[in-house]
Amino acid sequence: MSNPTPNADQATYWNAGAGDTWASLQDRLDHQLEPLGLRAMAALAPKPGERVLDIGCGAGQTSLALAAVVAPGGSVLGVDISHPLLEVARRRGEGLAGLAFQEADAQTAAFEAASFDAAFSRFGVMFFSDPPAAFANIRRALKPGGRLAFVCWRRPDENPFMSLPMAAAMAHLPAPAVPPPAPDPHAPGPFAFADPERVRGILAAAGFTDVDLAPHDQKIGSGDLDQTLTVSLKVGPLGAMLREHPDRRDAVVAAVREALAAHDGPQGVKLPSATWIVTARSA
Fold first, then answer.
1. Structure-derived torsion over alpha carbons of residues 112, 46, 148, 5, reported in degrees to the nearest 10
2. What residues pair up with 77 in beta bridges, in sequence order?
3. Domain extents for the chain?
4. Domain 8-157+185-220+272-282 -> CATH class
5. What is the Cα–Cα distance from 99 to 159, expressed in whole angstroms?
6. Spatial strand order in the sheet of 208-220
7. Which residue ranges in the chain fall short of pLDDT 70?
């Protein structure tokens, strides 16, 4: 890490197994998430010659797309805490003018003040330990009136593409002896920004104005049935549960395959997703 981070748990997570897993599945995950990122990118409306900060850039697909739009004369800095994902991003962007990547935590990174025209993120802003501090840091990096746009998940029950595989698997996995406590809906994680009023409050506290959250619903997928099954079994908590219960693997795989097959079609497996497209301006 090039900057100290209070998000130590997230840094460990994304530089260990999760980062390697996402890097190995980069093409499938990009296929799944690209339509949602493009929707947020359209809301940002980057222009040639602008300088854009890409927060939580991961394997770099969004940074590459932004760099193509701001050319000629513009530049993009992709920032992420995951070394494995940034290795992929740097390979993909090698030799491209106006594109750079930095291993850093956007909550604490020492960005040059008022140096970016716009900031963007595709599912990279829900993991901060202190969201108001993180967005205040991002706002300081924006020019006065600079634009912010990102896409984040709404509630889990509105996102069958994530909930359906787990629901199918749970029928074949043992219940815990002691039920785990209910998760904190505001804890860093994929659904930390599901509450629109919380997001508005965070951005206002960080100094943003003209905050808007537009609901976006779209069916997405990571490929054909086999490709989708692989992603479902490796990304998220289901993979960890299978490692804990290898004797249940065959039954779980069969159940998840059957559940996904019901949504298979000419364009592969497609399941509903529900997101917020968030836009704002720096004060």
1. -40
2. 53, 100
3. 8-157+185-220+272-282
4. alpha beta
5. 33
6. 99-103, 75-80, 51-55, 116-122, 142-153, 271-282, 208-220
7. 1-5, 177-178
